[in-house]
Amino acid sequence: MQTRTLGNNGSNVSALGLGLMGMSDFYGPADQAESIATIHDAIAAGITLLDTGDFYGSGHNEMLLREALKGRRREDVFIAVKFGAMRSPNGGFIGVDCRPAAVKNFLAYTLKRLGTDYIDLYQPARIDHTVPIEETVGAIAEMLKAGYVRHIGLSEAGAETLRRAQAVHPISWLQIEYSLLSRGIETEILPTARELGIAITAYGVLSRGLLSGHWSKERSATARDFRAHLPRFTGANLDCNLALVEALRAIAHEKGATVAQVAISWVLAQGADIIPLVGARRRDRLAEALGALEIELSVADLARIEKAVPTTAVAGDRYDAGQMAMLDSERKT
């Protein structure tokens, strides 16, 4: 397995990470036994980075990971945890809380659910604009000093927030959506992260399945998960985006690869400081994603891919209007 470094003088992690969210939430029912088998296969393949959140399935995801790691050496994996999003008993989202006391409270429950003494990287899932980022990062830094956390991360933070956070404590990574269909970070956020020595963990590298090569209008019409409410998956937007996928499929065919593999490989090729997260819920999807590590994209290949999937041709925002308004990374400076 290839490895990549988290920021300046950070830990080495696998070049691909496994995002566990879909095993507990958002994409409809998942098979627990298959989820655990997929985690086992990922570790066997050399994936060390396992990404979860305390609110995925209201704690289910962390307990699933604990079960999957039974009998394994804790130091062989790098566990990243997001916190701050609050859920009601019916699963609804009821706000974000990143006050210092909340940071420590969330962390205490996470340590219990995971059955571990420390978290490798801890990060707020969203920026809480009612709490100065300096206070949130300062609280995590206290937990780091106490030995409960090894690294501090941020998720969906804008350039200004990155600078303010870095002034409090070194930030190891920024987790943010980045794919052929979501390239907004290239203008300001990615250059700022590179200036500050902050790595990028890219989620949504397959744009929630659009770039998987397996999505269709028929599947979208019967979707029973949160994608049914996302602009890119509906109406004329979907037609436009699926046409981009077909253009990419032609290139993938020439490379002897799948659409998903080329999409992941493109993200990998954007820099050694970028670590794609793949959200495979099944072993066959994981095996497909791992195949991206074997693909070599030349400068000419990259140019063809970006011509086939131009940023200006993507139809629809990556989230609905309400969620977009919550993202610090989408705030106009």
Description of the structure:
This protein is of the alpha/beta class and 333 residues long. 38% of the residues lie in helices and 17% in strands. The protein has helices at residues 32-44, 60-68, 100-114, 133-145, 159-168, 189-196, 217-221, 235-254, 259-268, 283-290, 299-308, 321-326; strands at 3-5, 12-14, 17-19, 49-53, 78-83, 85-87, 93-96, 119-124, 149-155, 173-177, 199-203, 274-278. The strands form 3 sheets. It has an 8-stranded parallel β-barrel with strand order 3-4-5-8-9-10-11-12, surrounded by 5 helices. A two-stranded antiparallel sheet has the order 1-2. α6 (189-196) links the parallel β10 and β11. The longest helix has 20 residues, at 235-254. The radius of gyration is 19 Å and the shape is globular.
What is the topology?
Blueprint: E1 3-5, E2 12-14, E3 17-19, H1 32-44, E4 49-53, H2 60-68, E5 78-83, E6 85-87, E7 93-96, H3 100-114, E8 119-124, H4 133-145, E9 149-155, H5 159-168, E10 173-177, H6 189-196, E11 199-203, H7 217-221, H8 235-254, H9 259-268, E12 274-278, H10 283-290, H11 299-308, H12 321-326
Parallel strand pairs: 3-4, 3-12, 4-5, 5-8, 8-9, 9-10, 10-11, 11-12
Antiparallel strand pairs: 1-2, 6-7
Q: What spatial order of strands do you see in the largest sheet?
A: 3-4-5-8-9-10-11-12
Number of domains: 1
Helical proportion? Answer: 25-40%
Helix count, per DSSP? 12
CATH class: Alpha Beta
Q: Please write the string of helix (H) and strand (E) elements.
A: EEEHEHEEEHEHEHEHEHHHEHHH
Give the structural class. alpha/beta
Known CATH architecture: Alpha-Beta Barrel
Described by strand count, sense and barrel closure, the largest sheet is: 8 strands, parallel, barrel
Q: Between the first and last Cα atoms, what is the distance in angstroms?
A: 39 Å
What's the CATH topology name? TIM Barrel
According to CATH, the homologous superfamily is NADP-dependent oxidoreductase domain
Q: Given the C-alpha coordinates, what overall shape results?
A: globular
Beta-strand percentage range: 15-25%
Number of strands: 12
Please, what is the average pLDDT? 92
